[in-house]
Description:
Domain Major facilitator superfamily (MFS) profile: 11-446
Subcellular location: Cell membrane
CATH architecture of the largest domain: Up-down Bundle
Number of helices: 21
CATH class of the largest domain: Mainly Alpha
Shape: globular
Membrane topology: Multi-pass membrane protein
Protein name: MFS transporter
Number of domains: 3
Number of strands: 0
Keywords: Membrane, Transmembrane, Transmembrane helix, Transport
Largest sheet: none
Amino acid sequence: xxxxxxxxxxxxxxxxxxxxxxxxxxxxxxxxxxxxxxxxxxxxxxxxxxxxxxxxxxxxxxxxxxxxxxxxxxxxxxxxxxxxxxxxxxxxxxxxxxxxxxxxxxxxxxxxxxxxxxxxxxxxxxxxxxxxxxxxxxxxxxxxxxxxxxxxxxxxxxxxxxxxxxxxxxxxxxxxxxxxxxxxxxxxxxxxxxxxxxxxxxxxxxxxxxxxxxxxxxxxxxxxxxxxxxxxxxxxxxxxxxxxxxxxxxxxxxxxxxxxxxxxxxxxxxxxxxxxxxxxxxxxxxxxxxxxxxxxxxxxxxxxxxxxxxxxxxxxxxxxxxxxxxxxxxxxxxxxxxxxxxxxxxxxxxxxxxxxxxxxxxxxxxxxxxxxxxxxxxxxxxxxxxxxxxxxxxxxxxxxxxxxxxxxxxxxxxxxxxxxxxxxxxxxxxxxxxxxxxxxxxxxxxxxxxx
Length: 451
């Protein structure tokens, strides 16, 4: 693992440090929900906008990242992204009304949506194909570690100081990285200037609308407003796809889908992310609602799984070159099946079962998600890597949100006639289908082993 880290340039390490900090800031907010609800006197469905709005803002910007990368020098782009995040953090930190906190989170989401596909594209472009597996394993290590550190940081900060200190902490860290890292930022990406297409930009609202519709499905009860948002969003997305086919330099080059091996990698990334998201949603409910553990303990019990995920990521990156993606998918999806089966059969017996199940679910993610991203981009020519990464990160958010919606609907349905614990067990049983689909998809990966 240390060998893989040493292979990274100072610029790549700086990118990872920025992404790590922003990822932690994303995952710590749910811990602060009760405090913010009490401070601003808002309801649970209102405070949830701190997450929903963040995700929608991320999704709006992700498809634009290839254009940004091709038209703005890396130094200016990265500085701009971090400055937007810092402005959003400052707005949220000093907000006197809840609207200010939401506005700050929206700005943070825009910055994260631009950074995540950009930094992965830059790292992939500057890494030889034979070393990409190991390098992306380190990326997975960093992002997985953020999951482990996030609950601990938020718990400690909120235990001793104000919620504003959470925003202040990330402001100081990112400002320090921005100032100290200027000497390491390199303009390694070759610019390919093109006109900014406003029609494409407006039609991208369809991604945000679809994500919002998915996130609010459980509360909407399929009312007229929900159908209107969903219908308009789908029409905008259809218009976006048609528009990209007609542009000589599209916002998001959908020709990446024609390369053999890319689409399976994209779908596998979404399936693996689904397992990760469902683990973070279902497990706290098991701990708090079934075994009556405190929110702090429910967060701490997720740490072993996140640490397991971060430790497996570098190993899976190395194995990608040795055994190929297909066998890694078999390992990862089998682990996820075991995790869901344990919850479905023994989840009500002990919280230890939940801890082990979460380790299988998140460990399975380590064997699939980053290797699938790497393998999908390896079949693309270098000029299309930024487009391939942007499409993967965007669809990953949509699939993840869809998985949460399905889990919520299953819980609501079963809880009408069963206890909450039994509803959780039934929901876990249904999700066994997801990794089974991943195993079936792996049969399409016979020709995608790494050279």
